[in-house]
Specification:
By secondary structure, the protein is an alpha+beta fold. The chain is about 35% helix and about 20% strand. A hairpin with a 3-residue loop joins strand 10 and strand 11. Helix 5 packs antiparallel against helix 6 and helix 10 packs across helix 11. The radius of gyration is 26 Å and the shape is elongated. The two termini are about 40 Å apart.
Length: about 375
Amino acid sequence: MRRPVRLRRSATGTRPPPYDARVSSARAERLVNLVLCLLSTRQFLPAEKIRATVPGYADVGSDDAFFRMFERDKTELRELGVPLETGRNSGFDTTDGYRIARHDYELGEIDLEPDEAAAVALAARLWETPGLAGAAHGAVLKLRAAGVEVDETGSGPVQPRVRAVEPAFGPLLAAVQAGQVVTFPHRRGGPTGEVTQRTVEPWGVVSARGRWYLVGHDRDRVDVRSFRLSRIAGPVTTLGAPGSVQVPPGVDLLAVVDRGVALPPVIGTARLWVAAGRAHGLRRLGRVRRPLRLPGTGDGDELEIDLRSLDTVARWVAGYGPDVVVLHPPELAAAVRRAWATVAAGPDPAQPDPEPEPGPALAPAGRRSPG
């Protein structure tokens, strides 16, 4: 039986701040109680009424301490996107009161099928970066509280993992979420290239061809640019107030990276059999030549894609399992079989874990080249 999930949205449309694990449990509980209190009434509640009603405020010793705490909590809720309203119930009221309008706070009902809940669990298991892992775990807890069963313990022969190993990744992602300008030293070209200080309005952090890139408006060049994170040669510093950066509507971050980074030359063409209704990522990157039914496989299509990197395309094809069969060239088929054999053999305990290739784009969603 499906159960509806009601999710919060921001009335202002601003980005939520990055996940912060330092918020104490007592403060978090007080904020939750405050939200529940303000959601449960249509009247504007004055501060003194809130003090007497919400657990966590009654223990404050003085009026000044309570009002300082209450002001901090109001600011925290607004930064989290909670539409906190201020007003008076009648012309006879002498002080302002507060409430949260439900129609501004909640989205409509959202139903999750079992396979959709499984996809949420898979996404929650994907990230190993501490900040992102905490946010993903919090999302799973909210779904469970709403009655949606999300199994995070499911295992299989391949475990999804994405780690952001670049030191600049965390600060840049936080700046994108907060809408703040950043400045950082950036190295041009190879390891001996010139290092210059750049000031950028960040629009997003994406992965393309196995590397992480920052995309945004470069104030120094007065142009839209992309920056490889591995070439950021120092700390990332934020400038200005949060919310000062606005991402242009409809911008394609990966297209910006493609314009700034030359693609490897095409070394050949691969022909693949793709099962009907499967491997949509490969289908977007290739060209369907004809419907094709292989003995013992079922209905499908013959797909043609450009080869730029044999190993990269082999990893992509191997990830689709029996839904994709290599028809040509034989070198690609052999590379796919080697990839499967490596997965079946499991990790070598005598060898350190290899660094995984960075994963899919963070925001916005878009295509990704196979190499």
